[in-house]
Design a protein that fits this description.
Shape: elongated
Radius of gyration: 20 Å
Number of helices: 4
CATH architecture: Up-down Bundle
Order of helices and strands: HHHEEH
Strand content: under 5%
Bound molecules: protoporphyrin IX containing FE
Distance between the termini: 37 Å
Mean pLDDT: 91
Largest sheet: 2 strands, antiparallel
CATH class: Mainly Alpha
Length: 199
């Protein structure tokens, strides 16, 4: 199914989720390697690729949020306790914020340094701010701090997805994967019908 339903993510949401995951993996590697290189052609080429992929992630994040807004959102698993529900919502919101904040701080950083940003040499993007050494230094720190925050939140997010799949044995992960969600305990099950033992 192309569109989301209240029970599972549709094909487009799944595609966007996993495409962004793959691009973030490439992106973090290019950023870390690029930042560590001495100033020269190799560093500039590495960072040019990093910037183009970052802009791609920004565009995909916009499409993803628009698509989310136009579609139903699958219910959170009914077995979640109140604080787990809050934590899941907070984690998802934080991931969305970072999908925007990282590219934008990177773009501002490049503009403040006086390096124009292009998308794979095909599209020249406008400078977001004028040249400023102080802003450049602030953005470089912010960008690196946001990248660490993304790493921490993704680790939490992945741990939660794996817990749902292997410990709680519900459909949370399956409904973000192609194919049918077929576990005995659906992810959107209501608390009253939960088979989870009370602690
Ligand atoms: C989701 C998107 C992005 C992620 C996850 C990301 C991640 C990173 C990481 C991990 C670093 C290394 C930080 C360090 O160790 O100092 C980095 C550096 C950098 N990023 Fe990004 N980035 C993203 C988007 C962008 C965009 C869109 C641009 C520019 C248009 C950009 C420009 C840069 C630059 C210029 C550096 C090198 C900073 C330096 O010279 O130390 N980034 N990024
Ligand atoms: C860079 C890495 C990742 C990012 C940025 C990311 C981002 C997100 C976001 C923003 C959502 C919320 C979707 C929404 O409510 O619209 C989501 C959902 C989800 N993610 Fe990720 N994700 C990442 C990696 C992973 C990985 C590695 C896994 C699996 C091990 C995973 C499994 C899931 C699942 C199962 C959902 C659906 C949760 C639900 O239905 O309540 N994600 N992801």
């Amino acid at each position: 199914m192309f569109r989301n339903t209240r029970a599972r993510w549709g094909a487009l949401s799944q595609l966007l989720h996993w495409l962004i995951v793959a691009l973030i993996a490439v992106q973090a590697s290019l950023g870390l390697i690029g930042a560590g290189l001495p100033l020269g052609m190799e560093k500039l080429a590495m960072l040019a690729r990093h910037k183009s992929i970052g802009i791609t992630i920004l565009a995909l994040a916009v499409i993803r949020l628009l698509w989310r807004w136009l579609n139903p959102t699958p219910d959170l698993p009914g077995t979640l306790r109140g604080y787990e529900r809050l934590l899941a919502r907070f984690t998802h919101a934080a991931l969305y914020v970072l999908l925007f904040a990282l590219p934008l701080t990177g773009w501002i950083m490049s503009s403040a340094r006086g390096f124009p940003v292009s998308w794979f040499d095909v599209l020249q993007l406008p400078d977001l701010v004028s040249k400023s050494g102080a802003l450049y230094r602030a953005m470089i720190e912010t960008h690196a701090a946001l990248a660490i925050a993304l790493g921490v939140i993704v680790a939490l997010h992945v741990a939660a997805a794996l817990k749902h799949h292997f410990v709680l044995k519900d459909d949370t992960l399956r409904r973000m994967l192609p194919g049918r969600a077929s576990r005995a305990r659906p992810a959107g099950q209501t608390p009253g019908t939960s088979t989870r033992k009370p602690c």
